[in-house]
Write a structure and sequence with these properties.
By secondary structure, the protein is mainly α. 73% of the residues lie in helices and 0% in strands. The protein has twelve helices and no strands. The two termini are 22 Å apart.
């Protein structure tokens, strides 16, 4: 099941990402600026709660004050950075209430489909009109007035659609969505070597220390039965992934999830696999 989209990516995970895209360049500060865009989006949620009338319980915490006075306002270029972060943050707040850009964060690939298709369609129609203008009309005029005016309108529409696509891709929401996907992929890639090493170690232990083939298979069966029962439970935030899996025919782990739900096992116990069962 594709549950990555349901996972919350924190600012801390983005800050700790070791990918080359987010590594700080002393001259351009590209990595820091990209991280600050994500920080601005996270901070904008606090302003959104204020506008909605919710109490900011973290306002009285010391670490909230330290975040500003010991974090944002520290450094040689602190003044420029803090105003850049706040400016981008207010831009996110404006977009949230007055534009459609927030949809780029929830599903940026779908939100860009319509502008992209419109640019292609308008470009094709403009090309067809241009070819029609080059054909001589009945009166011998190579550029009939009606066709020329229509061509001018289509050129303007094509430009506006292309400009709208550019605005979508240049928005902070689109940047945050890409950075989030990049962080998830990078962190997953960083975990792969460790998992491969651990898997190789377990395989060596299984083949070298257990000579009986039947016992080897018995160990594997017990291991996978225990592991899948540990993986099956999930919290409410990830439970919707099981519902989406039903649209694709369902999965065996969804059956186990439903069974464990009826048994009262609603969340995964992080102590160990046996604790979940």
């Amino acid at each position: 099941m594709e549950v990555e989209d349901m996972k919350i990516t924190t600012v801390e995970e983005i800050w700790q990402c070791k990918g080359s895209l987010l590594c700080s360049d002393p001259e351009t500060e590209r990595g820091l600026r990209l991280k600050d865009v994500c920080l601005s989006m996270a901070l904008s949620k606090m302003l959104h709660r204020r506008f909605a009338g919710f109490e900011l319980v973290e306002a009285n915490l010391q670490k909230t004050k330290d975040f500003v006075f010991q974090g944002l306002l520290v450094g040689d270029k602190a003044s420029k950075r803090v105003f850049r972060v706040i400016e981008v943050e207010l831009g996110f707040v404006y977009d949230l209430y007055f534009t459609r850009y927030p949809y780029l964060y929830k599903g940026w690939y779908l939100a860009l489909c319509l502008p992209f298709v419109m640019v292609i369609l308008c470009s094709w129609l403009t090309y067809q009109l241009f070819k029609a203008c080059k054909k001589p009309a009945n009166n011998g005029n190579n550029f009939p007035l009606n066709t020329t005016l229509t061509l001018g309108v289509m050129l303007a529409v094509t430009f506006l659609e292309a400009f709208q696509l550019y605005l979508h891709m240049a928005s902070g929401w689109f940047k945050v969505a890409l950075i989030r996907s990049y962080t998830v992929i990078t962190n997953t890639g960083n975990d792969d070597p460790r998992l491969v090493v651990q898997g190789a170690w377990l395989a060596r232990q299984l083949t070298e220390e257990i000579q009986d083939k039947k016992l080897q298979w018995r160990v594997l069966v017990d291991f996978w039965a225990e592991m899948i029962l540990y993986v099956a439970p999930c919290d409410d935030a990830l439970a919707r992934a099981h519902l989406e899996a039903l649209t694709k025919g369902g999965e065996f782990i969804t059956h186990l999830w439903a069974l464990l739900t009826h048994a009262g096992v609603l969340e995964r116990d992080h102590v160990g696999p046996m604790a979940a069962v």
